[in-house]
């Protein structure tokens, strides 16, 4: 079946109050710049007794993405040398921003050693806490939600996808037992008595 897709400003949801029984997002919340505003909007369009379910990256994902970044960067450098793929394009764009050879070397070192920030808040180092179970729990609670459950998905992967499609779901589930789950699923409900019209004009 086809579902209607609504374009909007990314801030104010184009729906009346209490429009939905449930809300679901997958790996979106870390990319929300005005987190409090969006949480208020999500709660506003949720019906009484409704739930929001968010799948979010974990600290495990951040750790292994950070650890695997130098290898990912080396692979990107080879792509640049061969003029191949989006990784090579990204590195070439970064180098064009440099005005001197020394600056280019500095950018190459930074690109090779330091993993970039993934989301909209903090740094790649700060994301090790922001993406933890405790970090997400605090952010949801601070924006007026009650966390009903927070569970790992039991799948392992990193932001670098070093193994690509060579690892299937069974192998990734096995890895998650030893290395940790790369995502968490939070089921949350609006806290009673919290106003959801703070940002409405």
Give an overview in words.
There is one protein chain. The protein is an alpha+beta fold and 201 residues long. Helices cover 42% and strands 17% of the residues. It contains seven helices and four strands. The chain has helices spanning 35-44, 59-82, 85-96, 101-113, 127-130, 133-142, 169-179; strands at residues 20-26, 46-57, 145-152, 183-190. A four-stranded mixed β-sheet has the order 1-2-4-3. Strand 1, helix 1 and strand 2 form a beta-alpha-beta unit. The radius of gyration is 20 Å and the shape is globular.
Question: Helix tally?
Answer: 7
Calculate Rg over CA atoms: 20 Å
Question: Beta fraction of the residues?
Answer: 15-25%
Mean pLDDT: 84
Q: Give the N-to-C terminal Cα separation.
A: 36 Å
How much helicity do the residues have?
A: 40-55%
Strands ordered across the widest β-sheet: 1-2-4-3
Describe the global form: globular
Q: State the order of secondary-structure elements, H for helix, E for strand.
A: EHEHHHHHEHE
Tell me the total number of β-strands. 4
Unreliable sequence segments:
none
Q: Largest sheet at a glance? A: 4 strands, mixed
Helix/strand/pairing category: alpha+beta
Looking at this protein, list some descriptive labels.
201 residues, alpha+beta, 4-stranded mixed sheet, 17% strand
Give the arrangement of secondary structure elements.
Blueprint lengths: L19 E7 L8 H10 L1 E12 L1 H24 L2 H12 L4 H13 L13 H4 L2 H10 L2 E8 L16 H11 L3 E8 L11
Parallel strand pairs: 1-2
Antiparallel strand pairs: 2-4, 3-4
Helix pairs in contact: 2-3, 3-4
